[in-house]
Amino acid sequence: MACQLSEGRSNSFFQRCKPYIAMISLQFGYAGMNVITKVSLNHGMSHYVLVVYRHAFATLSIAPFALILERKVRTKITFTMFLQIFVLALLGPVIDQNFYYAGLKFTSPTFSCAMSNMLPAMTFVMAVICRMEKVNLKKVIYQAKVVGTVVTVAGALMMTLYKGPLVQLFWTRYIHIHQASAPPAASVAADQDWVKGCIFLIIATFAWASLFILQAATLKKYTAQLTLTTLICFVGTLQAIVVTLVMERSKPSIWNIGWDMNLLASAYAGIVTSSIAYYVQGLVIQKKGPVFASAFSPLMMIIVAIMGSFVLAENIYMGGVLGSVLIVGGLYSVLWGKYRESKENKEKESMSLPLEAVKGVIEGNAKILELEVDEVEIEKAKANNKKMISSSSIDSVVVSVVEPAPDVLMKVKQELKS
């Protein structure tokens, strides 16, 4: 008996820990994608080609699940729906990923992850503009959202405009000293590339936020999520091919890919971060909500910083550290406001249920009143207009109803006495 109780407690504890384990594992998966992709880009792979191969792998890995699991829930795709899918593919696989990889190439994995934490704040601003979010500055939850958005933008500006001194880590001191001897011209070029990379990352985050806004509207009409993701990845692959042919038309050799880091980066990004991650994150959001899933995103930045310093000997600057702190603080302020708002909405929905029940009781009582009045009228007709019902009986008929309105009570008494 004691053994069964202990097993039940251990199983219950494991069930509670599952969402935390899943999200932590997911952050390691995202961190690995950033580091592997950075290595591939440093070795000369075109980010345009990387986007094509990534979403081709994603389409092939998601499509079987969509065909099997959603064969009964798919709806017909209209021309308007196709246009929405086309724009979603343009925002996500094409604009977002190309600019993100370009920014990653010019900056660093840690910096790119930190800039990605702007997403909730930027999505909130766009949702307010599109009237999908309400802002009432008299309430603390909306004040937290606005302040968090401002702080997040300030952190992004600090990371863009201020680098500051190097943050010395004991396992990279020799590398930093060696890099400090680089010529001034190379340092100036690196600073220019850094600003360019920041701008690319901001554009990528803006496109990603736009994708969320449009996707939320699209899912209201097309509820098959796996099928919609498959179509977005497939159409995005075709669009990315066209963009690559235009941008890299003089380099046909860039399409060559072998059993090397380029193949690993493409397959890893497509299968792990576009397929497995989508499924795991969907399960966690379904069980714990989107706020819980978003709260783990800063963990990816920490993991990438540690991995990048070991694998890539990545430089970490004071401006990046301070900006990251501001972005994470603003992120949690926005997420807290969103959590409190969703909690208030749930409380309002739970309060509306008793009101509906009371309304049903009142409507039922009104029907009872009508039936009893009809019975009285029938008795009056049978008695040949003899007054069989006294004033006290009228009161008893009316009292049998639960608290009728006073004006209704007076009206019924007058009709029965007449």
UniProtKB/TrEMBL annotation:
It is found in: Membrane. This is EamA domain-containing protein. Its main location: membrane. It is a multi-pass membrane protein. InterPro entries: EamA_dom, EmrE-like, WAT1-related. GO terms for molecular function: transmembrane transporter activity. SUPFAM superfamilies: Multidrug resistance efflux transporter EmrE. Belongs to the drug/metabolite transporter (DMT) superfamily. Plant drug/metabolite exporter (P-DME) (TC 2.A.7.4) family. The keyword Ligase does not apply. The chain crosses the membrane at residues 20-41, 47-69, 81-103, 109-130, 142-162, 194-214, 226-247, 259-279, 291-310, 316-336. Pfam families: EamA. Keywords: Membrane, Transmembrane, Transmembrane helix. It comes from the Eukaryota. It comes from Dendrobium chrysotoxum (Orchid). GO terms for cellular component: membrane. Residues 20-160, 196-335 form the EamA domain. The lineage of its organism: Eukaryota, Viridiplantae, Streptophyta, Embryophyta, Tracheophyta.
